[in-house]
Amino acid sequence: MQTANVASQPEAALRSSPSLGGGRPEQRLLALIVYNQLIQSQGAETSVELSHEELKLLREEVHEALEKAREAQEDSGFWSDISDAFSGDIAGLAQLVVVAAATVASGGTAAVVLGAIALGATLASKYAEELGIPPKVAMCIGIAAAVASVASGNIGGGAQAIGTTAQIANGVKSWASGVEAAALVAGGTAHGISGQYSGDAIEHRADARSAKLGEDLESMELDDAIELLSAAVDRQTAAFEGTAAIMQGQQQTSERIIQSFSGAA
Amino acid sequence: MTIDNVGARADHYSYATENFALGTEAQLAIMILENEEAQKECDRERRDLALRDFIQASEVEVAAMREEAQDIRVGALFQAGATVTAASIQLTDLCDDPDVGCKELPVCEILGGTAQGLSEPLGNFLGDAAAASDRADAKAAAGDAQQAESQLAELKENLREAEGQQQKVTDWLSALIDKDAAAMNAVLSNMA
């Protein structure tokens, strides 16, 4: 709908209509109706323009927030992959080397069993959510993993291996432990950064949802304003038509009365 | 608006009906208009309520999403902190001279291992579990908002229908007036 046309119609009507003080009653009524509808039309028109601008801004805001959320999610995924690589793959491998070295150094089989338990429990606590393990149970498994891990490094098979092999094994164990610790630091830090980005992504989605709410409300207001404008125009047209019909009817009646008087004369 | 108010408003229209000499058809038309007007008032009230519910539910959804984000951050920070602490203890232990200190009780290893073992589940417990709860809240609120939105659309449709009905009745009234005018003209013509 061309709002300029809508506005020009009542303005023209008002200019062409006689003043409220003079003229016939139906003309005065028409002028009043048109004036009233003109005010409503102008209010609705302003509301439509404002809502349109606001809607445009809100749409941009939604788009921007969603774009930020997508970027944050990508960053989160990147850091999560790094975290998984360090905490999962590198640290897991290093732990395996530590267990193997501890077994060789201690010369026993008990360390192998405990090491296997430690690895299994570590993996179970790490992937508790995917495996459907409740958080509290996962915590217990985590503690068990820690105990088994410590035990596997310190409990031997009864007799310590001696000689160069044991020394080499101890050295490997130390280096592997160091690598494991360094990988854990890197993985933990990456996990923290990933979590921050993940939180940011959700925060941006919340911003987008909030802006979308504003957009919905503004859209409703725009619909109402357009409806009001349309109704005002319809009422103006109806007022014009109705008044024209009344005036025509009155004119016909007057003519007939005159005709009847003429006939009587 | 309460039912009493609707009645009062309807009475207002009835007053107009009773005080003017109208034909049966015109009275019927006005009664229909009154009825539609009362229905529209009810629908407007319900629409306002639905709109309020929609805004409220949407705001709850947004708040739950923000809490979820916060919980995820806290969980991640805690887990990262515990992991780094565990690794630091482990590294400190490695750097210690094996001849110094009591190696019979590997305190550092126990502490480091415990912190390491607890980091992931505690991170999940403090972060992901709380976030999942907030996510569920947000989803429930989103459902409520959607329900309110569809109710809003339904009520708007009802209002539009009522207005259409009123328009029809008004047209009918106009036709009645035209018919009366035509009859009057016919009488005058006969008189002439």
How would you describe this protein?
The complex is a heterodimer of chains A (265) and B (192). By secondary structure, chain A is mostly helical. Chain A contains six helices and no strands. In chain A, helix 2 packs parallel to helix 5 (135-154). Chain B has a single domain (3-191), classed as Helix Hairpins. Chain B is 91% helix and 0% strand. Chain B contains three helices and no strands. Residues 1-20 of chain B have low confidence and may be disordered. At the A-B interface, helix 3, helix 5 and helix 6 of A face helix 2 and helix 3 of B.
Outline the secondary-structure elements:
The complex is a heterodimer of chains A (265) and B (192).
Chain A: H1 3-16, H2 25-106, H3 110-126, H4 128-131, H5 135-154, H6 164-264
Helix pairs in contact in A: 1-2, 2-3, 2-5, 2-6, 3-5
Chain B: H1 3-19, H2 24-95, H3 107-191
Helix pairs in contact in B: 1-2, 2-3
In short, what is this structure?
The complex is a heterodimer of chains A (265) and B (192). Chain A has helices at residues 3-16, 25-106, 110-126, 128-131, 135-154, 164-264. Chain A is mainly α.
Rg of chain A to the nearest angstrom? 42 Å
Termini separation of chain B comes to 55 Å
Task: Determine the oligomeric state from the structure.
Answer: heterodimer
Q: Can you tell me the residue ranges of chain B where pLDDT is under 50 for at least 5 consecutive residues?
A: 1-20
Number of separate domains of chain B: 1
CATH topology of chain B: Helix Hairpins
**How does the major sheet of chain B shape up?**
none
Shape of chain B: rod-shaped
CATH second-level architecture of chain B: Orthogonal Bundle
Question: Gyration radius of chain B, to the nearest Å?
Answer: 37 Å
Alpha plus pi helix count of chain B? 3
Give the termini distance of chain A in whole angstroms. Answer: 56 Å
Largest sheet of chain A: none
Helix content of chain A: over 70%
Class by alpha and beta content of chain A: mainly alpha
Mean pLDDT of chain B: 78
N-to-C SSE series of chain B?
HHH
Number of beta strands of chain B: 0
State the largest interface.
A-B, 62 and 60 residues
